[in-house]
């Protein structure tokens, strides 16, 4: 079951790097308007921000060179809802293990993540997962995925794989280790819209 768009709300997709377009397609399949966010002017137009998959070291670097880290941090600290997938999960987490020395994260969800923790041999895999609140399993793609290695007590675990949380939520922030934007199933995106 999918729900309708968050009426009157604009969802921004951070479009500095990575698979942002796939998120736009997923939201638009739900009738939810999105815009690409590249600068402060774009950021001022959105009610929520999506951090896509890609490469968190590059995303961190581009946020610094485009002077977007601080403005986004300010919006997040005011409670702007955020949804991060894979590299986006890394960007929103509290601590990043195996990151680049100058890599920054926003620290708005109380988890620590280890980059590329699912190993080189299985760089990419797909599996069906059970997600709290969804009646049917969700087909999840993992691509050089981060692993949650610490999860604070205020964080709700919505899905796990082999005892590791892979979809978690705290206040208005939801993050996934996998890529719900790949494929045609937009139920996880609909869950995020329900948070707005
Ligand atoms: N390993 C990547 C990183 O550290 C994330 C991979 C992805 O987003 N598919 O940023």
List low-confidence stretches.
Answer: none
Count of distinct strands: 12
Broad shape: globular
Order of helices and strands: EHEHEHHEHEEEEEEEEH
Report the CATH architecture: 3-Layer(aba) Sandwich
| Count of folded domains | 1
Q: What is the CATH superfamily?
A: Class I glutamine amidotransferase (GATase) domain
Give a quick set of tags describing it.
single chain; alpha/beta; Rossmann fold; 3-stranded mixed beta sheet; globular; binds glutamine
Commentary on this structure:
- The chain is of the alpha/beta class and 196 residues long.
- The chain has a single domain, classed as Class I glutamine amidotransferase (GATase) domain (Rossmann fold, 3-Layer(aba) Sandwich), CATH 3.40.50.
- It has helices at residues 20-29, 40-43, 56-65, 69-77, 87-92, 187-194; strands spanning 11-14, 34-37, 48-51, 82-85, 93-97, 109-114, 124-129, 138-143, 147-151, 156-161, 164-170, 173-176.
- A seven-stranded mixed sheet has the order 2-1-3-4-12-11-10.
- The model has no long low-confidence stretch (mean pLDDT 94).
- The structure holds glutamine.
- The site of glutamine has 11 residues, from α5.
């Amino acid at each position: 079951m999918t729900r309708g768009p968050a009426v009157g709300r604009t969802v921004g997709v951070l479009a500095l790097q990575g698979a942002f377009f796939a998120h736009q397609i997923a939201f638009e399949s739900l009738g939810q308007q999105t815009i690409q966010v590249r600068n402060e002017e774009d950021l001022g137009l959105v009610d929520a921000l999506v951090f896509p998959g890609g490469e968190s070291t590059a995303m961190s670097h581009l946020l610094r060179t485009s002077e977007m880290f601080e403005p986004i941090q300010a919006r997040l600290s005011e409670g702007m809802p955020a949804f991060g997938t894979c590299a986006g999960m890394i960007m929103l987490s509290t601590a990043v293990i195996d990151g680049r020395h100058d890599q920054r994260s926003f620290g708005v969800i109380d988890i620590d993540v280890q980059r590329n923790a699912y190993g080189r041999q299985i760089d990419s895999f797909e599996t069906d997962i059970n997600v709290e609140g969804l009646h049917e399993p969700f087909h999840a793609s993992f691509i050089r995925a981060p692993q949650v290695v610490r999860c604070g007590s205020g964080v709700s675990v919505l899905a796990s794989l082999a005892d590791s949380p892979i979809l978690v939520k705290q206040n208005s922030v939801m993050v996934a280790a996998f890529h719900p934007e790949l494929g045609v199933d937009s139920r996880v995106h609909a869950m995020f819209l329900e948070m707005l």
